[in-house]
Every structure is written in C-alpha cells, then in structure tokens.
Amino acid sequence: INKVLASRLRIVSFCDVNHFVKKLQEAKNIILLTGAGVSTSLGIPDFRSSEGFYSKVKYLGLNDPQDVFNFDLFKREPSIFYSIANMILPPEDVYSPLHSFIKMLSDKGKLLRNYTQNIDNLESYAHIPPEKLVHCHGSFASATCVTCKWHVPGYKIFKNIRNVELPVCPNCFKERAKLMRLYNPYVDGTSEFDANSKQLNSNEIERIANIKSYGVLKPDITFFGEPLPERFFDCLTEDMNKCDLLICIGTSLKVAPVSDIVNMIPAKVPQVLINRDPVRHADFDLSLLGFCDDIAGMVTKQCGWKFNHNDWNKLSSGK
Ligand code: CNA
Annotated catalytic, 137? Predict the structure, then answer.
C-alpha cells in the first residue's frame, strides 16, 4: 500500500533545472540509482539500446536474450554464458565523468548511497567509498563455485573468460573430471550413463543433472532466478526515509526490484531522471534527456562546483 500511495501521491511541484540545481545544493542525503548508461561513454555497451548487448547476442538463438543471465540455464549449460562473457568483461582502471560526479557528491558529504545496477565495478576505480555503494546486481569483483561455494577474487577467472573457457574451482576439479568420464554424452544426444541401472539416490541424480556446471566458478553477478544481495534490502530499509533527493541516471528502470525504488521513496522527495531515452513508466519531477556525462557537467557548473576528470576528451563512444 505504501508503494502505491507513494507513486500516486507525488507531492513535489518541481519542474525545471534551476529548481533541481537549488535542491542539489541543499540536499544532504542523495540517492543515486545508476545503470549501464553511466559506463557507455567508455565503450561498454548497455543492454537494451539498439546497439546494446542484447542485440549482439541474438545469434545465440535463445528465446529471450536475457536468458544468457538465467541461473537455471547456467547450471544446465554454463558454456552459453562463457561463450559471451568476454563481451561484458569490464575494462580495468577506467571510469567515466559520471563516476567522477558521484565521487564529487560523496566528497561534499551529500551522497547517502549510490545504488548501482552495474556489474563493471568501475565505481571502485573512481574511489567512491564502498560504504556509499550498493552493487544491486553484484559485480565481477569476485566469483563463487556453483557446487562447493569456493570463493575467489574475480580477476582469477578473467583469463578463462578472455579465452572463452569454463573456469573450474580448484576444490572440485578432480571430482568434476571423474563425473565427466562417467557421464559422457554422445553427439546424437544419447548417453552411456544410465541413472536407473546404477540406482542413484536423488542427490546424486541432481548432481548429475547439473553435471556441466559441476565445479564451475560463476562471477558474483546476480542472474535472473537468484536473490539480490542482502545488502540491497538492508541499505534500502535504512535509507528510504533519510533520502532528500533521488536521481536516476543511465537506466531504463526495467529490472525489478531495483526499479521499485522510485515507488518506495516518500512522496515528498523530488525525483529526477538523467537519461538518454525517456522512461515513460515512472513519474519524475524532472527528466533531463541526453548524455549523462554532459548533463552532470552542466549541472555541476550551475551549482558553482567543479569535478576533475582527466579523460573527458578521449571519450567518444556512447555519444
Ligand atoms: P539498460 O536497460 O540497457 O538501459 C540503459 C539506459 O541507459 C537506456 O535507457 C539508455 O537510454 C541509457 N543510456 C545509454 N547511454 C547513455 C548515456 N551516455 N547517457 C545517459 N543515458 C544513457 O540497462 P539498465 O542499467 O537499466 O539495466 C539493468 C541491467 C543492465 C543491470 O542488471 C546491469 O547489470 C546491466 N548492465 C550493466 C553494464 C555495466 O556494468 N556497465 C553494462 C550493460 C548492462
């Protein structure tokens, strides 16, 4: 009910850039909800734009291109994800002007939290303090074995990802090799393994059903069918009533529950969208449409502030 009321009874009358600039100057607890659009100027494609990642993976012939991030499919056939994972592997040690804008708000003591849907972890290169960040969909910073939950730093599987190989857990690789010898599907789809004749218990059958992902390491990015990190819910509960300005940047707001944040913030709190394309299914007090790096630069200037970003001139893609 609160969600519905919050979305129906928006009570802010706030509709131009000057009001936004004033609010930004006064605000002390800003929530920034960011998405793939804050990294596109670095050449990292977003998902849903016409030149985005989903259009690049159509050749896989999946019913829905989002299925490359479907956890059930990953368990059955991890090689599908690993055949394209190199396309989304983030570059190292770069960040966009928009990341510098976030850092500036944090340095000014105005940032309550940056809820990022991004998995590229570029916020860390911009030195945005970890306590100010919520990686709503996890990130490539670490990886976990789907079988024994062995945890490794993400960079340990980057080489496998670049070589389009399955990264295998050091704890499980012997058992995996044994299972692979036992279960050896023939090209015509039949198998030399006969579960009935071997009288397996249900745990073993489950294990063998998921044999292709046995001992495979998966980056700790949240797939469809997996729960969001608990930190997302904990921080949101803490932040909802403290927030005095919500700014959504570079996101189509199509993925729940993150997209629900706009309905959970109290009605009196102004909400602003900074995005290349309009977001029609949400009700903003102000939508600034264009490239987020440029808009953030313009707004910062109008506030009488400055943020440093060394690579402004090198940026081309996404513009
Ligand atoms: P999306 O659905 O692809 O939407 C991106 C939005 O950004 C679109 O509405 C674009 O109009 C907008 N956009 C693109 N470039 C710019 C720009 N330069 N300035 C302003 N706006 C721009 O992606 P969402 O983030 O909404 O969807 C959530 C998914 C995307 C999350 O689960 C992420 O993990 C996932 N994702 C992350 C990355 C990354 O980490 N860099 C890249 C691609 C997808």
Answer: yes
